[in-house]
Prior knowledge:
alpha/beta, Serine Threonine Protein Phosphatase 5, Tetratricopeptide repeat, Rossmann fold, 3 domains, four-stranded parallel sheet, 10% strand, globular
Amino acid sequence: xxxxxxxxxxxxxxxxxxxxxxxxxxxxxxxxxxxxxxxxxxxxxxxxxxxxxxxxxxxxxxxxxxxxxxxxxxxxxxxxxxxxxxxxxxxxxxxxxxxxxxxxxxxxxxxxxxxxxxxxxxxxxxxxxxxxxxxxxxxxxxxxxxxxxxxxxxxxxxxxxxxxxxxxxxxxxxxxxxxxxxxxxxxxxxxxxxxxxxxxxxxxxxxxxxxxxxxxxxxxxxxxxxxxxxxxxxxxxxxxxxxxxxxxxxxxxxxxxxxxxxxxxxxxxxxxxxxxxxxxxxxxxxxxxxxxxxxxxxxxxxxxxxxxxxxxxxxxxxxxxxxxxxxxxxxxxxxxxxxxxxxxxxxxxxxxxxxxxxxxxxxxxxxxxxxxxxxxxxxxxxxxxxxxxxxxxxxxxxxxxxxxxxxxxxxxxxxxxxxxxxxxxxxxxxxxxxxxxxxxxxxxxxxxxxxxxxxxxxxxxxxxxxxxxxxxxxxx
Length: 476
């Protein structure tokens, strides 16, 4: 989180120029209103007008940095905070905000050092301590991050975000015994309001023929990852109703133990008891040893594969490699977890492969605008839902992609997949391992330096020819 300066006396007032003081104050207040209304580009212009009149206006320097950071213009935000710190080296707001911007730029050591300076200046500020915890987490220092989170929580016990980050840290370690119960803190997040059901919530008891409703939440990948627990629920003896979003419905019907599938946008059918899908691992006290990892646990309708014959015929005898370079562009961390199509184009250096884009959504326009787009087969027009994508993946030799829902789909199908991960990867990929306990067919390629994809793709390009050669020998 970034802190705004609510007011600041312009230095220019000291020279007795009352008109200038009034002008600066008026512009600053206008900029604040624009920023609070989320009209950030206009706020940037207004703060720059203030600074043109009074270059030492500390409030404008800090707030301009905040606005630029909100616009993902991190490199521009940093000098704003540094200039504010030239005016007052003990400005804890500017220090904390600078630490955040350095973290966004993947300069984690600098970020941590700066946030520790802010903590030393103002040691009981929950926001500064929380920001320090996030930077430590991104650097992989989970034990130190947990200490910071607990300090922040003690100072601000009603903040819903801090328990959520504590939960993610425990799950990443992994300490599932602490992590799953702590993961229930997600219901306190402002964008994750619990469903208002009158029926009781299931606690893991025998169902004895009752109708249990498994409610969906979060993204497509979360549903695909946690739907594996349905057979465990079915073993309790009930009628299992699974809720899902429309693009998943055909695929969810294939899961063993599912008796009924309903659209999230429709009214639920009658049921006796319910459970949020992502609470199931807590219900079953899941640890790494008991994690259900038998694949495949989803299967597309067999007839779907016929529609891909003309597309795949263009691959000839080459290794068929599916690509996804970006997840949902609305996911707030997508800028870190996604790579660019340009990075994936380097895979064309490897002879004997055919690249097939499985990309959906706005990032597909990167391929459409690419000068060498004819070298990559575009499957997007053929993919109407996840069942279609699953059917195509079953016809491929490998999928290479960044972290998004198709990774969970490919893993759930038990098909070979290489997932390329940012340095501070999501909790479900754990730490310091190149495999996944969730998906036996998955291999992980992690950034070794925050924000740097080049080394990741260099390793992928080293491994790909080995697959091509093994395939060639197998066909002899």
